[in-house]
Design brief:
Length: 155
Amino acid sequence: QIATPSLEPIEIIGTSHSFTSAKGNIMKFHIDGTLPPISATHIFVFGSNQAGRHGLGAAKVAREQYGAEYGMGQGLWNRSYAIPTKDVFIEPLPLHDIHRFVQLFIRDAAHRSDLEFFVTAIGTGLAGFSHAEIAPMFRGSPLNCDFPENWREYL
């Protein structure tokens, strides 16, 4: 454990650490832009388009390094999990549609306690949403989810 000036002690776990979120929940966080280990139990969660064209950003990383399937725009594939933030025409989805896909992810993660879900800052890059718009959608996620540190204030 290490102590920080403004936080309770945190436990470093690889590139992740656990501490209380701004809403009082014990959660795991990682530095945005880092990658999880490539293993059978670590799942890379990324923002996708509904057409499953994983050509840019985290979607490209998911395809090249974590087995995301081209043409599969939603769900668990190999060591990746796609959450749609854009439609089949590569236009941003409405926030209520993204929220629906996030709820499906939360349900799936809760049923797969054998896996560790490394959530990227979906929707905040190419889709153009803010962290404040997307991060709160993940409130209530199970403990096997690991989030970008800059989402802590929203979770």
